[in-house]
Amino acid sequence: MLNPSWRRVVLKVGSALIAPENDGCSEKYLRPIAEFIRQCRMQGLEVILVSSGSVAAGRHHFNFSHQRVPIALKRAMAAVGQNEMMNFWSRCFEFPCAQVLLTHGDLSDRVRHVNARNTFQRLLDHGVLPIVNENDTIATEELKVGDNDNLAAMVATVTSADALIICSDVQGLYTADPNKDPKATLIPEVRQIDQRIYQLAGGASSSVGTGGMRTKIEAAEKAAAQGIDTLICDGHQAVTFQCLLAGTNPGTIFYGQAKPLSAKKHWVRHTLRAKGEIWVDDGCIDALCRNGASLLSSGIVQVKGEFESGDAVIIRCKAGKRSIAKGGSRFSANELFSIKGQQSRDFSHCLGYCPTGSDAVIHRSEMMLLEKL
What we know:
Blueprint: E1 8-13, H1 15-18, H2 27-42, E2 46-51, H3 54-58, H4 71-92, E3 97-102, H5 104-108, H6 110-125, E4 129-134, H7 148-158, E5 163-168, E6 189-190, H8 195-199, H9 213-225, E7 229-234, H10 238-246, E8 252-254, H11 263-270, E9 274-280, H12 282-291, E10 300-305, E11 312-317, E12 323-328, H13 333-339, H14 347-351, E13 367-369
Parallel strand pairs: 1-2, 1-5, 2-4, 3-4, 5-7, 6-8, 9-11
Antiparallel strand pairs: 7-8, 9-10, 11-12, 12-13
Helix pairs in contact: 2-10, 7-9
């Protein structure tokens, strides 16, 4: 269902569509997707393609029959498969394509985040189709997004897209697992993603990809927070793309929030990974949640983890069971060990030097509440 108000769309294609037999790229499902992209561009819609499947596409070049692939070999498979996948996509179109390989580190670092956004914009300005994948050949576990559903949502927010379309091997979200319950029915619309929606998500239905329905809902939640609509649909069926072009809904649409988060707060909540925890007292929680205050050192009772100034941390209640907020700390863990529970006037005595800038440990402009009182 191509909404007439949409001007930019991120289209995510799963591994099960790229290499359904785990034996290299296949045209079986990709030709209708390529034609859909061409039709969208003819209608003036900008498209960014997030394409999974580099490992699956490259696996047949390696004499390795075990299901569990060592990480070094998987990176080698990705290096070969990425090249095959780009060659295939390029042959599908009469316009130029660009390969964009990203890691979570590229998106969580503010400078690289902005650079990525500018690159996407220049590619689109010149009629080039950006084709995005995770950089599996070099990404470490700490720097990996882990699945391309969430990567696609991050790309959608980076590029200020209007919609995210996730083409998978499932039609959408059901009231129950359709593989087990014959009475399960498709849910065409979701206006709010809550715990009930997450409970409807089953496991991964594909042996090729890494993401199941839960990762798709996570992606939809990230996109919705930025006001981006997300559609999950079955990429196996050519009729899916006919429906989209005709303006009808072939799957499940998750509507974007009417009042989206600011770009910075969205980045803090959904992209930055926390490297530590700060436990605070009840008075501090009240000030953060009710009064919109910044986090001050006087309310800190415990510091956990190893982090530097600028790293993201989770703010927890002093019992450690509730996550209250997330934000970028202006002090390192070692500094906070010295100044926790202290007033700002005592910083120079505790640290042996006087820190420059704000007295706030986390300024409210760099903090995102995760829980409201």
